[in-house]
Amino acid sequence: MADVIAYLEMRDGTPRPVAREAVSAAKTLADRLGGSVVALAFGGTGTAEAARAMAAFGADRLVVVEDDSLVAYSPDVAVAVIQHLAAELSPAAVVFPASAQGKDLSARAAGRLKRSLASEVTELAVEDGMIVVTRPVYAGKAYARLRFRDSPALLSIRPNVFPVIEHAGAGAVERPAMPDVQEKTRVGPIEQGERDRLDVREADIVVSGGRGLQGPEKWEILEHLVDALGPGATLGASRAVVDAGWRPHGEQVGQTGKVVSPSLYFAIGISGAIQHLAGMRTANVIVAVNKDAEAPIFDVANYGIVGDAFEVVPELTDAVRKLRTSDG
Amino acid sequence: MNSIVCIKRVPDSETRVRIASDGLAVDRSGVKFDMNEYDKYALEEAIRRKEEAGEGLVTVLTVGGDDARETLRQALAMGADEAVLLRAETGFDGLPVAVALAEEIRDRPFDLLLFGKQAIDDDGMQVPAMVAELLGLPAATVVVSLEIEAGRAVARREVEGGHETVEFDLPGIVAAQKGLNEPRYPSLKGIMAAKKKPLEEKDVTLVEGGLELLELSGPPDRPEPQILGEGAEAVPELVRRLREEVKVL
Question: Is B3-203 CATH 3.40.190.10?
Fold first, then answer.
């Protein structure tokens, strides 16, 4: 009754970084409720072996459904197994990552179980035995604190927010048989984008560009900065440059794009429209570079430089390169 | 090709959000409302499918208050044929809304049931997939392109760092992401025609959801901004601060 299920999202045969966050968050909840953590994974041969790594973050049981048809996401199979587990364990909660797949599956599970779902949760607590979550609404212009009236509490956690905590769990592997379900929705393999950069929601450092860069061909200076910052960094964009067709929509940060919480966010040539600020104001540290000293972006920035991006950014890239080189 | 499109009236994305004095709602006074942006892609897709097929019906459906009528008229002006308002107050729990929509949709024949991928007020991204499960229908969420041939839909869905293809037989559900199409603006002719199109209204009682709103609050304050200087000369100081003060480099 006090167990917590954590959904392990897999990609290319291994748990995605958000899986560790989900297990850690589930462990925190389970400890307060006096239950254990049951991690759930789907995939082809070898998934159980790969999922076992999650024991290090507190997974007591690993329920792994292995089948070659499960290399790609199968919502129909996953939701059927969740329904079965929910009936068997009567868990207190099911924790999903608020990733593309996690949000799709969590909402399906909510519909199947007829239970409410809190999406993009950024804080979790147990108060008087009941699960209380905080989640941003209006893209972070406000925060809602919500209490679950019944169980299981279904929730998806925002990537990059919950800490990954090492905490040895038993990690006992169980392999239930593939459920006999008719697949109504068939999902194909993931086609990776041309440039294998991190998703803007999952990167530790985001370098976003706006109109101040004057044209799509000028993005080179931001790419150089991202490359200098290392593999945890990625590119973002303002709505204006996405609407202008300079950058793909997947990079858009803001209320009608993605809401990000990296440890470091660079806003380069972005004036700071309300809908953009909503999408990045939960970043740990914000740096703004803008020619206009009155630009609203400076109101949310920890550090601002008033100046031309074409002068500031290459200088910054050089300085970061030197730093990285001297760090070895 | 018959489509049902579920839409929502939401505060415009450029709106400042103020919390009402009871701490449980957003102050709606002076707020500009619009059709949820992603719903416009969903509606445009339905209208295009109908135009291409040369036949069919586009029904728009919403759960909301009296003011949602204006948003339904906007949808009719874009080219929807009929509208239904399920009158009820909604909150931050997607399930009661999904249940009400599923009940209304259950007896209506359609090929495609469309939604925007998320409403930009509650940011739930829940209702399309919930309705899919409640009605036992296939669904593709966060869809950036859609092809339909001989009753089979092939949708491209956005995932982190790439795309995946989702296939299913109609009838089915598609939740639209930006990029699916370029939504049209209502024409003057469309606005005039919308006044004569049927808009049905009924009161509904939402089921009690499992989430209780305890408090709505503003975002945490940001630290006091520090302007480090002008131009490239300020870069060494920035790097020093990032490294030593906040330790993120």
Answer: no
Per-residue pLDDT at A195: 64
User: Per the CB < 8 Å rule, is B249 touching A320?
Assistant: yes
Q: Is there a contact between B140 and B168 (Cβ–Cβ < 8 Å)?
A: yes
Q: What is the pLDDT of residues A270-301, one digit of tens each?
A: 999 999 999 999 999 999 999 999 999 999 99
Instruction: Note whether A117 and A110 are within 8 A (CB).
Output: yes
**Predicted TM-score of the model (pTM):** 0.93
- Compute φ and ψ for A15, nearest 5 degrees: -65, 135
The DSSP secondary structure of A172-239, one letter per residue, reads EEE-PPPP----SSEE-PPEEPSS-PPPTTT-SEEEEE-GGG-SGGGGHHHHHHHHHH-TTEEEEE-H
Can you tell me the distance from the alpha carbon of B241 to that of B8, in angstroms, rounded to the nearest whole number? 45
Domains along the sequence of chain A with CATH:
4-174 (3.40.50.620), 205-327 (3.40.50.1220)
Q: Cβ A255–B11 below 8 Å, yes or no?
A: no
Inter-chain touch B17–A138, beta carbons under 8 Å:
yes
User: What mean pLDDT value characterizes chain B?
Assistant: 96
Report residue A194's pLDDT band, with 50, 70 and 90 as the boundaries: low
Please report residues of A whose CB lies closer than 8 A to that of B167: 185-188
Distance CA A106, CA A268 (A): 35
Beta carbons within 10 angstroms of residue B7's beta carbon: 28
Domain-by-domain residue ranges, chain B?
3-203
Please answer yes or no on whether A185 and B158 come within 8 Å at the CB atom.
no
- The answer to whether A92 and A153 are in contact (CB under 8 A) is yes
Interface mutation vs chain A, best among B24, B35, B118, B133, most A CBs within 10 Å? B133
Residues of chain A positioned with their CB less than 8 A from the CB of B240: none
User: Do residues B138 and B168 lie in contact, with contact meaning Cβ atoms separated by under 8 Å?
Assistant: yes
ipTM of the complex: 0.95
Q: Is the pLDDT of residue A328 over 80?
A: no
CB contacts of B178 in chain A (<8 Å) are 249, 252, 256-257
